[in-house]
């Protein structure tokens, strides 16, 4: 029997100390991650340096006021993208950070194909602002669905409004092209259906996503402000992009009117916009040049206009966009 006084009895043994992870590793990982966009942009610039130098040389002799007009329409394009993103989600998002995220998403969009980069940035932004993953993904799906529908409607409006200005004979696709388009649409609809049918683990999340999307669609379309933001922003966005091309063309002396340039862009981006190239670069450019030449524009001026358009919308804001993306990652806003 112990003779120690009660107040000297030993207390409970202390719990083993939990090892505290040094924050230096987390900070280092965050810094490396924030530099990834800059490294990707640098690699892409080295690969496509010829297009950059040609575009800069062409723009050096262009009318600077028209180029400033094109830059203005480029900035409005980011605003339109932010408006559409807000229209695709019921919750109110902070306007400033939302606009910054879309500016940063533009840089990511031109590195990864099929808008994967822009969607990834937006998804992280929505999750950081308390939007559940299912609802954030549903908003991306709604955004991706509404944009081509709105663009097609704008294209039809231009066809009806300007029947005499637009000569369509050379632009009608041949039988082989129509078969390729039909085959691509069929594959695009069949493959997801087969995956959902065959791969059972995909059924529940896909069905949950569809239910969430349908619920949000009903909620959004009961609010006029969201309808205007979603559909109005989606309709004005391609017109703003085409206005950039028209401004660059005017600075170089391209002999096409604004409605013709807008139609050329709408037709080209609608025809080959589904090709999974980063930012649509390549297929859309070739189709745009072909469409403008079919509307009696010189080949050299059409090519220079497209190069100038890419310089204004991609290469000029690419480094600032990558810096904003890195800053958002560093501040854990994404």
Automatic annotation (TrEMBL):
Pfam families: LPG_synthase_TM. Keywords: Cell membrane, Membrane, Transmembrane, Transmembrane helix. It is a multi-pass membrane protein. The keyword Transmembrane helix applies. The chain crosses the membrane at residues 28-45, 65-84, 149-166, 178-199, 228-252, 307-329. It comes from the Bacteria. This is Membrane protein. It comes from Streptomyces albiflavescens.
């Amino acid at each position: 029997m112990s003779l120690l006084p009660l107040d000297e009895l030993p207390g409970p043994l202390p719990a083993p100390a939990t090892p505290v992870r040094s924050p230096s590793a987390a900070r280092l990982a965050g810094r490396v991650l924030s530099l990834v966009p800059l490294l990707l942009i640098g690699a892409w610039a080295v690969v496509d340096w010829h297009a950059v130098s040609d575009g800069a040389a062409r723009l050096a002799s262009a009318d600077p006021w028209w180029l400033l007009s094109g830059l203005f329409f480029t900035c409005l394009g980011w605003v339109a993208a932010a408006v559409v993103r807000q229209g695709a989600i019921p919750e109110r998002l902070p306007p400033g950070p939302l606009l910054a995220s879309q500016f940063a998403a533009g840089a990511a969009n031109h590195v990864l194909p099929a808008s994967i980069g822009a969607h990834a940035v937006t998804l992280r932004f929505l999750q950081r602002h308390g939007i559940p993953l299912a609802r954030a993904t549903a908003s991306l799906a709604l955004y991706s669905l509404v944009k081509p529908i709105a663009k097609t409607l704008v294209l039809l409006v231009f066809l009806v409004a300007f029947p005499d200005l637009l000569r369509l004979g050379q632009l009608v696709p041949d039988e082989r092209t129509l078969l390729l388009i039909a085959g691509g649409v069929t594959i695009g609809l069949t493959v997801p259906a087969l995956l959902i049918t065959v791969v059972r683990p995909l059924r529940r999340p896909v069905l949950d996503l569809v239910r969430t999307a349908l619920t949000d669609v009903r909620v959004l379309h009961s609010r006029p402000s969201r309808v205007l933001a979603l559909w109005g922003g989606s309709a004005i966005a391609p017109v703003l992009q085409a206005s950039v091309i028209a401004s660059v063309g005017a600075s170089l002396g391209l002999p096409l009117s604004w409605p013709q340039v807008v139609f050329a862009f709408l037709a080209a981006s609608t025809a080959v916009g589904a090709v999974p190239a980063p930012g649509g670069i390549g297929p859309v450019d070739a189709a745009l040049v072909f469409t403008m030449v079919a509307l009696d524009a010189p080949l050299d001026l059409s090519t220079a206009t497209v190069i100038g358009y890419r310089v204004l919308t991609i290469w000029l804001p690419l480094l600032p966009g990558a810096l904003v993306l890195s800053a958002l990652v560093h501040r854990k806003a994404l």
